[in-house]
Backbone:
């Protein structure tokens, strides 16, 4: 059994991004909009900002009071859309209850939506011609690729259908860029273990600690664990790691698996955004 | 074995649409833009127009010379976007080689894109909150539902990943509205027959005559045939009908299966567009 080391692979990706940024004639810029006092959200935003700065991406966080009206968030996003120096805009989720997540995400200009959450970008992804692949699905495919797993023709079973992982990952998997055979399972799936046992690769993204157990997978399976659950002050994935690792040919750990890949993929998207924006400005001038 | 009668089911849907239109205080309007001399395209456009008129939808076709510049198509679409009397706009595919299909589709205002082909609408579909479900996937799910097939929890294997059938159908199937477990297979899938044999329901949408054979499916399977192939002046589906019908519990014929459902679904989308546009005008006034 091999452990797929997200720390090691993501540090290689970040080095590539560092080189890419160094070769550009300007510094890409990523702005996070944080409308929350939640310590977890603050931590996520800080981690992304630090990771951006480490690779040479200019980064800043705009704070909006959680009790401010929705319009304040929307007008802040509109200003960032118009700001030529900004390449990527992240609206940190979750948002307060009185703010529409959909309106907030749709307010971001699709060409600056480095999260890949805007419906227009989701549509491009479904069509197999993505502009920005959401960071976690992108990180999952990249880490498998870097570990030497050839996804073409393989049967990947995705457990979970969230808007930021399961659904976009499925679209990425069955695209011509990846060519995997993809199955999406979820809470209403009958005989779930029949599906996961038939898989070459299982991706667990349900948000339930140790949901995938050894009896649910076949000998030699590759397992990717997207879950990050806090249990008794410890981080636990969606996979019962010890028992599943005994049957798997390769598995991602939690922490140190998909998590760091997600941040690295976001940095890649930001550099890609800067490039695409430069090209479109060149061609329009 | 039961034959799932698309003619009969679609005529019920069209009756519903007729009643819906009769109850509206204005007549919905559908406009097709045809930039082709291809007799098949002309036939499709005429069929849609006739079906629209039959249910009381106002319908018209705008012809553009196949050798006209792309801009002429784009400005025609822009005029239709601005025309308050128009609820639905169809750009008939295929387009001439010198015209970008992507630009043409993206030119249609998403709120008039009753084909559901605009990336924004595809993204909403992937997120499980569709505005317009593309007509063929919508028709497939409707005809199964009307035939009494409960898709919730069932394993549906979609063979084919086209932009207008396979991909949007997968997104519709794994949405919370349908709750099926969906697998997307395609030309690069290994052991295709292993996947199709594991399915409760097989949807064939590959565009290859009689591609799905009896040895590829299990006893009692439900089979939906999306293919319409012309072989020796006869219409043949993607399923070897006679032999597969012997194993299936239910199967759609070609012709008379998915085809008529597709047209009926387009009419539903047009009425839905008229309703949504009336609501958004009421709320903005």
Residues:
């Amino acid at each position: 059994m091999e452990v797929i080391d997200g720390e090691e692979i993501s540090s290689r990706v970040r080095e590539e991004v560092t080189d890419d940024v160094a070769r550009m004639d300007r510094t890409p810029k990523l702005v996070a909009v944080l409308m929350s006092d939640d310590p977890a959200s603050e931590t996520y935003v800080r981690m992304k900002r630090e990771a951006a700065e480490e690779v040479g991406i200019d980064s800043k966080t705009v704070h909006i009071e959680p009790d401010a009206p929705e319009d304040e968030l929307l007008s802040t996003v509109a200003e960032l859309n118009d700001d030529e120096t900004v390449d990527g805009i992240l609206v940190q989720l979750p948002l307060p209850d009185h703010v529409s997540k959909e309106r907030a995400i749709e307010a971001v200009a699709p060409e600056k939506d480095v999260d890949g959450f805007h419906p227009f970008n989701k549509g491009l992804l479904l069509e197999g011609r993505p502009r920005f692949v959401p960071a976690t699905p992108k990180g999952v495919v990249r880490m498998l690729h870097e570990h030497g797993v050839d996804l073409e023709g393989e049967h990947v079973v995705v457990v979970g259908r969230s808007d930021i992982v399961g659904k976009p990952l499925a679209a990425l998997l069955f695209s011509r860029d990846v060519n995997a055979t993809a199955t999406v399972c979820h809470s209403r799936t009958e005989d779930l273990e029949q599906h996961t046992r038939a898989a070459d690769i299982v991706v667990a993204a349900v948000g339930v600690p140790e949901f995938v157990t050894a009896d649910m997978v076949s000998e030699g399976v590759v397992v990717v664990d997207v879950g990050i659950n806090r249990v008794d002050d410890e981080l636990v994935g969606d996979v019962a790691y010890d028992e599943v690792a005994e049957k798997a040919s390769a598995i991602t750990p939690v922490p140190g698996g998909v998590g760091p890949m997600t941040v690295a993929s976001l940095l890649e998207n930001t550099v890609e955004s800067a490039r695409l924006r430069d090209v479109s400005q060149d061609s329009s001038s």
Q: What stands out?
A: The longest helix of chain B spans residues 258-284. Chain B touches chain A at residues 118-129, 152-155, 161, 163, 167-168, 170-171, 174, 179, 181-186, 188-190, 195, 198 (CB under 8 Å). Chain B has two domains: 24-114, 135-259.
